[in-house]
């Protein structure tokens, strides 16, 4: 999709297609949340249906796929999550409700069966800011993974995250990019709109 020459718009905001803000709590399930929100936007843009997918289901199956166990609340790579979406799909939230206190409940057979109808047909890597903008210009949200030491404590009162001058790693967090705004009045010439 991103190989074609696409018009990159000066501004995109997909928040009108996004579902309600949800809270992952202290679990490492950010990949489940970001991928479910992304799929919800894709479905709503294409069909107008307002579905809510289960981040708990995706978090469980992705860890089983990656580690063969769910005994630890240890997060999961975005690549494994996308492979899980491709292989198994994801059920709706009503079929496997998210429980902020439990990360190792196995989905029942009905939830696993219902997930198959929501499998993805593929996924793509965006290797540049222009590729992110091209995807967003075509109503395709983008998941990015950021170093948490770059964002924790760096968010201003206006929601903006500054560029820190240090380079350390304390972990990673998956967030969904749902828009951007190019304008010279902003540092760097614009900003991305993210759902955390």
Overall shape: it is: globular
The biggest sheet, with number of strands, parallel, antiparallel or mixed sense and barrel status, is:
4 strands, antiparallel
**What's the N-to-C terminus distance?**
26 Å
Low-confidence region ranges: none
How large, in whole angstroms, is the Cα Rg? Answer: 17 Å
Which range does the strand content fall in? 5-15%
Number of helices: 5
Helix-strand category: alpha+beta
| Average of pLDDT | 87
Order of helices and strands: EHHHHHEEE
Q: Got a strand count?
A: 4
Share of helix, binned: 25-40%
Summarize the structure.
By secondary structure, the chain is α+β, with helices and mostly antiparallel strands.
Which descriptors would you attach to this protein?
196 residues, alpha+beta
Would you kindly provide a written description of the structure presented here, covering whatever features stand out?
The chain has 196 residues and is an alpha+beta fold. It contains five helices and four strands, in the order βαααααβββ. Strands 1, 2, 3 and 4 form a four-stranded antiparallel sheet that branches. β3 (172-182) and β4 (190-195) form a beta hairpin. α1 (30-47) packs across α2 and α2 packs across α3 (78-88). The radius of gyration is 17 Å and the shape is globular. 30% of the residues are buried.
Per-chain topology:
Blueprint: E1 11-13, H1 30-47, H2 55-67, H3 78-88, H4 109-115, H5 129-137, E2 142-147, E3 172-182, E4 190-195
Helix pairs in contact: 1-2, 2-3
């Amino acid at each position: 999709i991103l190989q074609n020459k696409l018009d990159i718009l000066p501004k995109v905001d997909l928040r009108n297609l996004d579902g309600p803000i949800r809270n992952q709590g202290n679990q490492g399930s950010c990949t489940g949340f970001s991928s479910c929100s992304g799929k919800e936007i894709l479905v709503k843009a294409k069909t107008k249906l307002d579905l809510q997918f289960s981040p708990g289901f995706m978090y469980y199956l992705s860890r089983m796929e990656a580690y063969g166990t769910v005994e630890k609340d240890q997060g999961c790579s975005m690549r494994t999550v996308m492979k899980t979406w491709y292989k198994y799909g994801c059920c709706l939230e009503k079929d496997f409700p998210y429980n902020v206190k439990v990360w190792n409940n196995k989905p029942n057979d009905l939830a696993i069966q219902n997930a198959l109808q929501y499998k993805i047909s593929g996924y793509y890597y965006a290797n540049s800011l222009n590729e992110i903008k091209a995807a967003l210009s075509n109503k395709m949200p983008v998941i990015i993974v950021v170093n948490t030491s770059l964002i924790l404590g760096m968010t201003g009162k206006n929601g903006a995250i500054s560029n820190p001058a240090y380079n350390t790693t304390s972990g990673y967090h998956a967030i969904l990019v749902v828009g951007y705004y190019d304008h010279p009045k902003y540092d760097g010439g614009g900003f991305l709109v993210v759902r955390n």
